[in-house]
Each structure stands twice: as structure tokens, then as C-alpha cells.
Amino acid sequence: MAQPNRYLIAYNSISASLWSIVLFNTVFLAATVGQPYVFDKTNKTTTIIQTLAIIEIFNSLVGLVRSPLFTTFTQVLSRLLLVWGVHQYLPNSPANTHWCYITLCLSWSITEIIRYSYYAANLTGQVPYFLTWLRYTTFYVLYPTGVASEVYLIILSLDEAGFYYGWALKIILVVYIPGFYMLYTYMIKQRKKVLSKKNQ
């Protein structure tokens, strides 16, 4: 096995494991104590784990993965906006203690556990069909819930953000519309292509 593959398998496997921590923490705390404790106990961990996704930009930049650099950059940047631009920069935002933080963490973590597990398995050449199906089907629900949570979280943070930062966030909200449409329709096309091959 080529060295880059070993690195990528390790990276994707570790990433899936880290997002499993986010999922467990979110589910356990949401079921037992709820907000605002879910945010208080998970936001730093989630921020660190999400920040590690910067490595994906590097992987795309140097050609270790086929993911387009611009798409990877914008996806990672949009999430960093949430974890750093809201959760850390605006710790008193009402969004942080709202239920949308819980749906955000659930959507992100489930998506990433499936995605990274699929990537790791794909690099070994042995991907179970159920994992392929999950990778190219769960986005129908998880992408809209994730984006809706992100958008609502930003909207709830506008007053706390102040005038200038608030306007910057409003501009970003407008960009979400074409961004979501492009990503969602791309995944629908990929699903048809990938699952049709599996069913042949």
C-alpha cells in the first residue's frame, strides 16, 4: 500500500473516531441535561475537532485527494465560521444555548462519521454496500438539517454580532443559498452515478 494511502486511511479513521465523540457527547448530554449544558460541555471539543479539518485543505492543495480545492476550502471555512466566528467569538449569543446547536452537532457528526468511514474503507478497496448507501443517501436529510441549523444559528447571533460583523454575517447568509443548491444537486448526481454502478 502506498504511503499516502496509509496516511489518508489513518486521517479518515481518526476523524471518524473524533466525530463519534461529538455524537456521543451530544446525544448523552441532550438526553440527560439539555441546554445550556450541551453547549458548555461540548463546544470546545467540537471546535477543536472541526478545526482539524483544515488538514483537508492541505490534502486537496497538494493533490493527495481528488476533492476540488475551492469546494473543500469553502466547506471547511463555512464550518470554521460557526465554531470560531460564533461559538468562540460570540459566547453569549443566544444561538449557542438554543436547540439548533444540538441539531447542528448531530447533523455534522453523523455526516462526518459516515463520510470519513466511507473514505477510509474506499482507500482499502473494500467498501460495504451499506456504507456506500449511507454515504450517498443520508445527505438527503442531514444536509438540509445541518444547513438549516447553521443558518438559524447565524440569524440568532446577528444582534450579538453588532453592526459591522452583523452585516458580514448577513452577506454570508446570502451565499448559503447558491452554495447549498450546488452541493445538494451535486450529491444527488453522485448518488445516481455511484449506486447505479453498485447495482450493476
UniProtKB/TrEMBL annotation:
<dbReference type="GO" id="GO:0042761">
    <property type="term" value="P:very long-chain fatty acid biosynthetic process"/>
</dbReference>
<comment type="similarity">
    <text>Belongs to the very long-chain fatty acids dehydratase HACD family.</text>
</comment>
<feature type="transmembrane region" description="Helical">
    <location>
        <begin position="48"/>
        <end position="65"/>
    </location>
</feature>
<dbReference type="Pfam" id="PF04387">
    <property type="entry name" value="PTPLA"/>
</dbReference>
<comment type="pathway">
    <text>Lipid metabolism; fatty acid biosynthesis.</text>
</comment>
<dbReference type="GO" id="GO:0005789">
    <property type="term" value="C:endoplasmic reticulum membrane"/>
</dbReference>
<keyword id="KW-0456">Lyase</keyword>
<dbReference type="GO" id="GO:0102158">
    <property type="term" value="F:very-long-chain (3R)-3-hydroxyacyl-CoA dehydratase activity"/>
</dbReference>
<dbReference type="GO" id="GO:0030497">
    <property type="term" value="P:fatty acid elongation"/>
</dbReference>
<feature type="transmembrane region" description="Helical">
    <location>
        <begin position="164"/>
        <end position="188"/>
    </location>
</feature>
<keyword id="KW-1133">Transmembrane helix</keyword>
<keyword id="KW-0275">Fatty acid biosynthesis</keyword>
<feature type="transmembrane region" description="Helical">
    <location>
        <begin position="7"/>
        <end position="28"/>
    </location>
</feature>
<keyword id="KW-0276">Fatty acid metabolism</keyword>
<keyword id="KW-0443">Lipid metabolism</keyword>
<comment type="function">
    <text>Catalyzes the third of the four reactions of the long-chain fatty acids elongation cycle. This endoplasmic reticulum-bound enzymatic process, allows the addition of two carbons to the chain of long- and very long-chain fatty acids/VLCFAs per cycle. This enzyme catalyzes the dehydration of the 3-hydroxyacyl-CoA intermediate into trans-2,3-enoyl-CoA, within each cycle of fatty acid elongation. Thereby, it participates to the production of VLCFAs of different chain lengths that are involved in multiple biological processes as precursors of membrane lipids and lipid mediators.</text>
</comment>
<keyword id="KW-0472">Membrane</keyword>
<feature type="transmembrane region" description="Helical">
    <location>
        <begin position="139"/>
        <end position="158"/>
    </location>
</feature>
<keyword id="KW-0444">Lipid biosynthesis</keyword>
<protein>
    <recommendedName>
        <fullName>Very-long-chain (3R)-3-hydroxyacyl-CoA dehydratase</fullName>
        <ecNumber>4.2.1.134</ecNumber>
    </recommendedName>
</protein>
<keyword id="KW-0812">Transmembrane</keyword>
<keyword id="KW-0256">Endoplasmic reticulum</keyword>
<dbReference type="GO" id="GO:0030148">
    <property type="term" value="P:sphingolipid biosynthetic process"/>
</dbReference>
<dbReference type="InterPro" id="IPR007482">
    <property type="entry name" value="Tyr_Pase-like_PTPLA"/>
</dbReference>
